[in-house]
Structure formats: C-alpha cells, structure tokens
Amino acid sequence: MRNIFTFILILFMFSVKAQGEALFNTATDAYNAGDYNKAIENYLEIIEDGQHSAELYFNLGNSYYKLNQVAPSIYYYEKALLLKPNDSEIKNNLSYAQNMTLDAIEVMPETGFSKIYADIVQFLSFDQWAYTAIVFILLFVLLYIGFYYFKYATQKRIAFITSIVSLFVAIVSVVFAFLQFSDYKEDQPAIVFDDEVKVTSEPNKRGQAVFTLHEGTKLNVLEELEEYKKIRIADGQTGWLTSDSIRLLKDF
Predict the structure, then answer these.
(1) Whole-structure pTM over 0.90, yes or no?
(2) Pairing with 120, which of 9, 45, 95, 200 sits 20 to 30 Å away (CA)?
(3) 8 pLDDT band (50/70/90 cuts)?
(4) DSSP per position, 42-88
C-alpha cells in the first residue's frame, strides 16, 4: 500500500511539473508574439500551482515592463534577484524598470567594513554557501582517507595540506551561510504598489505625514501593527503605512 502511494505521489509530481513546463512554453510563446497580458496570465498560473524560479519571475518582470506597469515589473525582477543574486541580466533589466519610478531616494553610504562584509557574505546566497560547505567537507573526507592510503611522502603531504584547506573552506562556508541566512531573515523588503502613499509618523489615521512614496519604490519592513507596517527607505527615513499599499518580496 505504501509503495502504491509513493508511486501515485511521484506520478502527480511529474504531472504538475509537465503542466508547469507546458504553461511556461505557452506563456513564452505569447510573450514573443507580443501578447503580454496572456503571458502574464499563464506565468501567474504557474506560480499559483506552487512553482517558483528566477526565470519565471524574470519573464513576468519583462512582461509587466512591456506594459509599462512599474510596480509589478520591479516586484518580479526583485523576486528573481532573490533567487539569483548575481545575475547581470536581471540587474540590468531591474535598473531600466527603476528608471520609471518617481522617487529619487539617496542611498545611505556604506562604511568600508560593511561594504567588504556585504561583498563577501552576499557573494553567494545562504543555500549556495551551504552547498559549498558540503562539497568541501566531502573533499576533506576523501583527501583525509587518501592520506592514509597514499604510499609516497609527497602525496601524503599534498593530501594532508589540501584536506586542511578544504576543512577550513567548509567551516568558513558554514559561517557565511549562517550570516547570510540571518541577514535574509532580518531583511524584509517590499515594493510600493499604490500610485502614491503617505508615510505617517504613527500607525493610525491621525498620524502626521512625514514623506510620500510612489509605486515601484523599494523599502524594508521593520515591524507590523494591525493593518499598518513600519518601514524604512534607503536613505534611513522611517514611518508607517497601510499594509495593503505594499507587497512583500519574500512571500514564497
């Protein structure tokens, strides 16, 4: 009975994957034909089925960009970038979409140490750092075994030194994976979807407006209180806005 259930589950997974691939191809054909609304409809259907990929979000961003819809295009480019943080094509298209936004927010300058930290730790995503750690741990084990079986002193010396280096890289990768994951959890980016939204000093209708944001602007959510969210923008300013004015990027 258990084997039958497993077999049915596998068949179902293959069926869902095949349907997703068929929809993806249909959506891509619609995009190439200039029917961007149809492409969006099919891409979103794939997401509703629980499938996610950088390619899917990237194509959605392109489709919305072709329709001059600022917020959705930036939103999906940013989601694609979360899955492929070093993809130059995604970054390039995102920059084009960001040029359509109205808010010119000056980014707070990074200190030397924080920039070096970001460049190193964020070079790979936390799961990529974890995979790197696994690879080097396996390499360490193989080299350590080889150390005992190699006959010549030179081979033993090379195997020993390389195994120690592999262990060191594995430990560093684990640390970076932990740091990257911690940063990932703390960072809650979102995109403004309202044409214009007033950011207030308090999480209520009586709060004084401190600044205004427009669609497509990226911000970070700090905390939530009922239907309001406290946010911070790139220049360090903070305030409150209604939750339905924005869409969180890390919702998958």
Answers:
(1) no
(2) 95
(3) very low
(4) HHHHHHHTT---HHHHHHHHHHHHHTT-HHHHHHHHHHHHHHSTT-H
Residue 249 structure tokens: 């990027």
The tens digit of pLDDT for each residue in 130-158 reads 999 999 999 999 998 998 889 888 999 99
The span from the CA of 78 to the CA of 170, in Å, is: 30
Tokens in use for 222?
Answer: 């700090």
Which residue's entry shows tokens 């409150």? 240
Domain 189-248: CATH architecture, name and number where available? Roll (2.30)
Instruction: Report whether pLDDT(46) > 50.
Output: yes
- Helix, strand, or coil (residue 128): helix
The helix/strand count (H/E) of the chain reads as 8, 7
The tokens 């869902």 sit on which residue?
A: 16
CATH architecture of 2-98: Alpha Horseshoe (1.25)
CB atoms < 10 A from the CB of 55, how many? Answer: 14
DSSP H/E element including 202: none
Q: What is the DSSP letter of 234?
A: T
Task: Check if the beta carbon of residue 61 is closer than 8 Å to that of residue 71.
Answer: no
List of residues 6+ apart from 245 with CB closer than 8 A: 192, 193, 194, 197
> Can you tell me the distance from the alpha carbon of 58 to that of 27, in angstroms, rounded to the nearest whole number?
13
Tokens matching residue 250: 């890390």
**pLDDT tier at 85 (50, 70, 90 boundaries)?**
confident
